[in-house]
Amino acid sequence: xxxxxxxxxxxxxxxxxxxxxxxxxxxxxxxxxxxxxxxxxxxxxxxxxxxxxxxxxxxxxxxxxxxxxxxxxxxxxxxxxxxxxxxxxxxxxxxxxxxxxxxxxxxxxxxxxxxxxxxxxxxxxxxxxxxxxxxxxxxxxxxxxxxxxxxxxxxxxxxxxxxxxxxxxxxxxxxxxxxxxxxxxxxxxxxxxxxxxxxxxxxxxxxxxxxxxx
Length: 214
Prior knowledge:
Layout: E1 3-9, H1 17-22, E2 28-32, E3 44-48, H2 52-61, E4 65-74, E5 77-84, H3 86-96, E6 101-108, E7 111-118, H4 122-133, E8 139-145, H5 159-170, H6 182-189, H7 193-212
Antiparallel strand pairs: 1-7, 1-8, 2-3, 2-6, 3-5, 4-5, 6-7
Helix pairs in contact: 3-4, 5-7, 6-7
């Protein structure tokens, strides 16, 4: 049975501990991190309500990052691209070694919170054991079947649809006038324009059907 795990890690055991020490109010949301077999994916992180030059300076000085660059800025949000150092890549490798995928990640001064997808339930215990073996303090707060995963408003969106619709909402795609285009969202989510359009249509249909009824 496919499983979603919600878990946390202290910042000092994952990434950006130096940045949070310098900017304790900063909050980071990952657009993409890593999936099993793709540990070289470059992370993209949104930081909200923060001064871009100040954040950029803190990120560049952080020992867990390399090649930091500002990709986009919209209102008070900034999108940064960077590379993790070897230590962080190792931690992500442990988290997704069992064919897993980090589907969301949020970092604050209190630590990092992840949702990790596993294709089978037994992979969760193996991942937890691997973290313990390498002294990674993974704090698992919830485990649930994919069919029971949290959905937008309880309307049973798939995790993929939830991520897409939420990203569109967060980036102002639904505002008038729009603050983000499909092309921009597709680039941020690292999917094709067609795939993004299809995900949104399916997500919208699910939401509408649940609101209006059969």
